[in-house]
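Can't attach files on this board, so I'm pasting raw text. These are the components:
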Amino acid sequence: MGGLPAGHCERDEHDYELWEKRVDALMMLLSAKDRDLLKVDELRRNIEDLGARAYDAMGYYERWMHAITQTLIQRGVLTIDEIGRKLAEIEAKSDGGDR
Amino acid sequence: MAATAEAAKFAVGDRVRVRRADPPGHLRTPWYCRGHVGTIERICGAFANPEELAYNRSGLPAQPLYRVRFRSVDLWQDYRGNGADVVEIEIFQHWLEPA
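---
Top answer:
Structure tokens for the assembled complex are below.
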């Protein structure tokens, strides 16, 4: 990317995890014209703002998840406290699984 | 959107130079073509400015978008591929100057 050397390019289509499909659906719903809670350009800006190290460490939909969260905070749709409490609630409910 | 679009300043075949600028924010003009000269290949239409959309502003008036053709050897001095190779990049009007 950006003219920098890159590794091997995986050309095969692969299956997506359920959480990845949910992130995709969330993005579609939030950016629908009648809602306009998120513009794809805001998503891209927030992905770019990750910084190189975080960008490289995250997967494709992890970057989207981060950028959706940032946009909803910036738009005033969600507060940081709401997100923090919800995350804690979900963690408490989960029995060590990752979703 | 066409009602609030800026008029196109360039025509197909015109030589243009990409502005060598580096403002902060979400920019869709690749770094590697800034400062270089290319030729207008087509006018793609006019679209809300993504630099503004990235901050949830209207991006209007819409900016004409051009497909600009560059010679690969012009973009990269050490280019070793076919001398006839070209790169086409879609660039908004406010990034272009007559060359």
